[in-house]
Amino acid sequence: MTITAPAPSPEVLQRKARKAALGSFVGTAIEWYDFFIYGTAAALVLGPQFFPGTSELAGTLAAFATLAVGFVARPIGGIVMGHFGDRVGRKSMLVTSLLLMGFATVAIGLLPNYAAIGVAAPVLLVALRFVQGLGVGGEWGGAVLVATENAPVGKRGLYGAAPQIGVPAGVLLANLVFLPLTAVLDDAAFAAWGWRVPFLLSAVLVVVAMWIRLGLEESADFEASRDAAGEVKLPLAEVLVKHWKTVLLAGGTFVATNGIAYAYMVYVLKYGEAELGFGKSTMLFLLIASCPFWMAGMAISAYKSDIIGRRRVYIISSSALVIVAALFFPLMDTAMLPVMLVAMIALGFVLGACAGPQSALFAELFPAHIRYSGASLGYQIGAILGGGLAPIVATSLFAAFGTSLAVTAYFVLIALVSLVSILLLRHPHDPAVAVAQSRRSEQEVA
């Protein structure tokens, strides 16, 4: 006689959903704090610390190149952790990714510079940045699936926004740590030791996130897919054979969101200081002030995606991004702080609106037994083509043409790539599509 366990009550399921969303948000915020403090440090100080003896431009490009190394590692982390996340479980991979990121970040904070150990310093910096990339590469897919697979019916978009909002929350936290350091310390003290403080603080934050994540449970979707996962020895192979077009188009939808966001968070800090004549603290303040609007854009668009559909919200947001991308640098170049603040807020809000429905969109594109692999691969393809190259491309374009119009053209181009990608991407599980199909069925019956 088989005894069937009673189904969980709605209250239990609701608590599980909220706990999953909180775990996804907190862990993602801390992992991206780790990832973003590197970007901020690359813009402000890593060039002379680890690549001395070069011109300022060459040092900046070298520092941004190490930033890109993390993006090269991200698909590898996504593939490896996606494989085990589909076969072993989401939770274990989230814990692994957090440990990798925490170790690498603290190690960078302790790493001697070029003056102390010579060429070993940049070599070790690149290696640790690679480890950071592995960690964050496996993070997004797991965090998104934990949030969306545990979400209440009809609220996958809203709950899936939790790890997405963790990204600007991580940026906000990173810059709130950097801002007092740049404001209180002189350039010599900041270069000597001040820049290391945000990296070392990561140890405390990782402990908090680990405590939350160890209490998470696997989703019903994953538990139900265990048998299928046992039959599929290589989830990635099935993704590449049966869903390669979906992966490429999904990655394309993310190129602009990630690329423009990284230029907005990293390159603009350097641009405001070097070309517009503002101090580090001023530029960090502008970025910090725009982060709440970035998060608001995510929450609003994620909520709307549960009502009118992921794809429709994504198309509207991507169209708006093309327009805002064209206006951003002309507004920044006025060098008028109120106008610059408006530009930063507008770009942040639209970037958030593009990212809000992304978690649920990517999760719903793939069946549960290959979902971690498929969603992670699509996301990381967009990340490496967008975010990893954006600061280098923007710096190189400005150096070559001497005008921000070249950077604007780059922004508009990748925004158009993402718009075309979402127009071509078909999403049969979109809530709006399901509602339309239900209405057609009702009309046929009538």
TrEMBL record:
Membrane topology: Multi-pass membrane protein
Subcellular localization(s) per the UniProt record: Cell membrane
Residue runs in coiled coils: none
Transmembrane stretches, start-end: 21-45, 57-80, 165-185, 197-216, 247-269, 281-301, 313-331, 337-356, 377-401, 407-425
Keywords: Cell membrane, Membrane, Transmembrane, Transmembrane helix, Transport
CDD domains reported in the protein's UniProt record: MFS_ShiA_like
InterPro entries in the record: MFS, MFS_dom, MFS_trans_sf, Sugar_transporter_CS
Domain Major facilitator superfamily (MFS) profile, chain residue ranges per copy: 20-430
PROSITE patterns linked to this entry: MFS (PS50850), SUGAR_TRANSPORT_1 (PS00216)
Protein name: MFS transporter
Biological source species: Rhodococcus indonesiensis
